[in-house]
Specification:
Blueprint lengths: L11 H5 L6 H12 L6 E7 L10 E2 L3 H8 L5 E4 L5 E2 L6 E6 H4 L3 H24 L4 E4 L10 H10 L4 E2 L2 H6 L10 H7 L2 H11 L6 E4 L6 H12 L3 E6 L3 H4 L2 H14 L6 E5 L4 H7 L5 E4 L1 H4 L7 E7 L2 E2 L10 E6 L4 E5 L14 E3 L2 E5 L2 E2 L6 H15 L10 E2 L2
Parallel strand pairs: 6-7, 6-11, 8-9, 9-10, 10-11, 15-19
Antiparallel strand pairs: 1-5, 1-12, 2-4, 3-5, 3-17, 12-13, 14-15, 14-16, 17-18
Helix pairs in contact: 3-5, 5-6, 8-9, 9-10, 10-12
Length: 403
């Protein structure tokens, strides 16, 4: 019987102490210590041998947290940059050192990498569908509050312009962004009173965006908001639930038409509520911005795994995996080649273009060897990478094994 409710979360010290793990890793540690194999030096790859259906690429995220878990351990770490695009079979990170130094942390390392990469990848896909439109992540109500900041960070580096979560925004050095909930309007009992109170109380630097679908038809409320706030109104948000939505494109067209013919052409339209890639593409030419939550917060999983590929310098792996340490080379045309570690590949054998290695040393004996970028710096690189692929609808990374 529970007599005192609690919030079930792991503190940072629990994670670093190796408590957030599967019991079989604890038992493995006991066995390897007792049989003197714990000190064997191994290399382990983190990779996804397949991607979700319809995905031709994924976005690597969560590296900073993974390095925090390994910090102070006697391991070397090689990794792709956080925010890098990758394909199936490609190692995104490699850990080298005594197995006893990191074995118990496998679930925690994979947890942060898999979750963050899944969220960031979905955010990037929706970013492509909403290119040049405002994209805000509204999804922390979809996840346990303990991990909300991590999900905010992953969605932001994946391409969202901002997040609504207060703590998540604070932790990545950004300003939270949001409009108003239906609760505000219901409390006032009248839309105009709620909109005007928002305008009177909220700091002036916050854009006046009125939620316009609480009690009446969207185009009716949008016009009332425009007439109520006049030139101070920046935009209207339509959060129409699926049970009342009908044809959302037609609803947006009606709102835009109504605002325009009444002299409010400058009022922008934002949509939220159950938006995914399909809906985003269907509305991108009509609306000015999107609030997306659940589809980013609960995306298809990028199934990263961690597997030993070398023991005491000898290539070895379980069946179905490639033994031996590896490097990934990429040319400017995004031809990827997986090669044995140590093999240099200056030019792409597919097109002849110069190549660059994607896996770089980021930690040596538990100490960082690089300066980690901020979330905004990672996001900027992500947008550059997305810019190069957005004109190719079916873009896919299909790595070639090159020995």
């Amino acid at each position: 019987m529970v007599t005192r409710p609690r919030i079930y979360l792991a503190e940072e010290e629990d994670i670093l102490a190796g408590k957030v793990t599967d019991v079989y890793f604890v038992r493995t540690a006991l066995i390897t210590e007792a049989t003197n194999v714990a000190s064997k030096r191994v290399a382990a790859d983190v990779h996804a041998y397949s991607l979700p259906s319809g995905y031709g690429w994924a976005l690597f995220a969560g590296l900073e947290e993974a390095l925090r878990i390994l910090q102070g351990r006697k391991v070397d770490v090689y990794a792709m940059e956080e925010g890098e695009l990758f394909g199936p079979m490609e190692p995104v990170m490699e850990i080298v050192g005594p197995y006893s130094e990191f074995g118990v942390y496998e679930p925690a390392i994979l947890g942060v990498l898999r979750h963050s990469s899944s969220v960031a990848t979905k955010a990037a896909r929706i970013r492509l569908a909403t290119w040049n439109k405002i994209l805000i992540f509204f999804g922390i109500r979809s996840v346990h509050p303990a991990v909300a900041p991590a999900v905010d960070r992953a969605s932001f580096i994946g391409g969202c312009d901002a997040v609504s979560g207060v703590l998540g925004a604070e932790m990545i050095g950004e300003r939270p962004v949001g409009t108003m909930p239906h609760a505000l309007i219901i409390l006032f009992g009248e839309q105009e009173k709620a909109w005007r109170s928002f305008d009177e109380v909220v700091p002036p630097e916050v854009p006046r965006i009125a939620l316009c679908d609480t009690f009446d038809d969207e185009r009716v409320e949008a016009l009332r908001a425009a007439r109520s706030l006049g030139e101070r109104l920046f935009g209207v948000r339509l959060d129409t639930p699926s049970s009342r939505r009908g044809n959302m494109r037609r609803i947006v067209q009606e709102v835009r038409w109504t605002l325009d013919i009444n002299g409010f052409k400058d009022v922008k339209i934002f949509v939220s509520g159950g938006i995914d890639e399909v809906e985003a593409r269907e509305l991108a030419d009509l609306v000015d911005g999107f609030g997306v939550g659940t589809s980013i917060a609960f995306p298809p999983s990028i199934d990263l795994a961690l597997d030993i590929v070398e023991v005491d310098g000898r290539p070895v792996a379980k069946r179905g995996k490639l033994p031996g340490r590896k490097q990934v080379y990429r040319c400017s045309k995004v031809h990827d080649l997986i090669v044995p570690f140590g093999k240099e590949l200056e030019r792409c054998p597919v097109c002849g273009e110069p190549t660059r290695p994607l896996l770089k040393k980021v930690m040596e004996s538990g100490e960082l060897t690089v300066d980690l970028p901020s979330a905004r710096e990672i996001r900027s690189k992500v947008l550059e990478r997305l810019e190069t692929i957005r004109s190719v609808p079916d873009f896919a990374i299909e790595p070639v094994l090159h020995t």
